[in-house]
Amino acid sequence: MIDDELLTEIRGKFAHVDTCPFQGPRVFFENAGGALTLKSVVETSAKFTGIPDNQGRDNPASRALVDVIAKSKEAALDWFGASDGTVFVGESGTELLFRLIRTAVVGTSGGVLIGSTVEHPASQSAMAHWAQKMGRDYRLVSHDDTLGLVTAEAYADAVTPDTKVATILHTSPVTGMGMDVVAISKAIRAVAPEIFIIVDGIQHASHGLVDLVAADVDGYVVSPYKVFSRHGYGVAWVSERLTDLGPENLDGGPERNWEMGTRDTGAYATFHDVVDYFDWLGSQVGGGDTRRERIEAAGAAVKAHEKTLTDAMLHGTGNLKGLAEMEGVTIIGGVDNPAREGLVCFWADSVSAPDIVAALNAEGVRTHVRKADHYSGNILTPLGQDAAVRVSMCHYNSIDEVARFLSVMAQVLDA
């Protein structure tokens, strides 16, 4: 769906797509740590940084800012695939997960809280913190070490009728595997229909579609710097019923307001740039009469192209062997895993993960080492590993870049 001509046009829309301003020419396979930034986001950031006015004033500039925010929220609802609810920005994805989870846990009484062992500490830590503060029973559903994910069946076995809050990780930033959020949500609600479900969508956001109508959840959080925008803010969607629990507000202020203090109009505007990009991409790969239909077309194209990239990385391209064919290399989550989303994480018996990452970087191929720390220990420790190499791609990456990676890897493992 994304041919060479379109890929060239796509790459032209991103800053520093093949050159690091500090290192020089390089292949960027560290997208899970933060994706490339749209050039339009850079321009929009500069534009709104220079505007001195705030919202809520009686002047043309203020009214224009309010209008930008309103249109950005409307665009974000289309991107999330939500029919109602509220979109708002916060400090970061992690901060927003803490806030949504706090509201859900404090706003319910008694009962059980559940999450899973595959989750990022952003959601696990928030649940554990508020479970301890509120004296609640917090239980973790075990993920499948072999597949690198947690299943709906595992949640179904763990949920009880008195479960009040559940968290789901949409995609793991370590294994690269996507969870079946729709199936997990359905399995949970079959037992506890009134439960509040909050999803960490931070890793998934750049790799495919978000459909909150199908998901039937109460909160979904993304970090825009991982989906082609900039650092400095997070975006959350919350259901009406989660808002009914009553987020913190200023005394005398609006009771259903999630926004605290003056909003950064530029944050909203740069997320609108992200939505506009998906809208444009969808128009190039199938189109549609509505913005949502074009976003859906874009999501399908992204998924297909990234599968082409990961298949080439695993099974080879041209005369280059893939990682799965290299002696002593183990792929986390297995080789042919249909849940994989643009990411391959592996270790080699003959060369340590930090040394592989350093050798790749010296040859202009940017990857990342995941260590068995508080971020990745939940995945690596059960596998008996203290570190692994994460190679994370996005749809703007090319087969030529995969070939460059495999060429260097062959040299590294032969050294």
UniProtKB/TrEMBL annotation:
SUPFAM superfamilies named among the record's database cross-references: PLP-dependent transferases (SSF53383)
**Where does the Aminotransferase class V domain start and stop, copy by copy?**
27-405
Might you give the EC number(s) for this enzyme? 2.8.1.7
One Pfam family assigned to this protein is Aminotran_5
Give the GO molecular function terms.
cysteine desulfurase activity
Q: Its domain of life?
A: Bacteria
Q: InterPro entries of this UniProt entry? A: Aminotrans_V_dom (IPR000192), PyrdxlP-dep_Trfase (IPR015424), PyrdxlP-dep_Trfase_major (IPR015421), PyrdxlP-dep_Trfase_small (IPR015422)
Q: Keyword Transferase, does the record have it?
A: yes
Question: Keyword set for this entry?
Answer: Pyridoxal phosphate, Transferase
User: Which Gene3D superfamilies does the UniProt record give?
Assistant: Aspartate Aminotransferase, domain 1, Type I PLP-dependent aspartate aminotransferase-like (Major domain)
**Protein name from the UniProt record:** Putative cysteine desulfurase
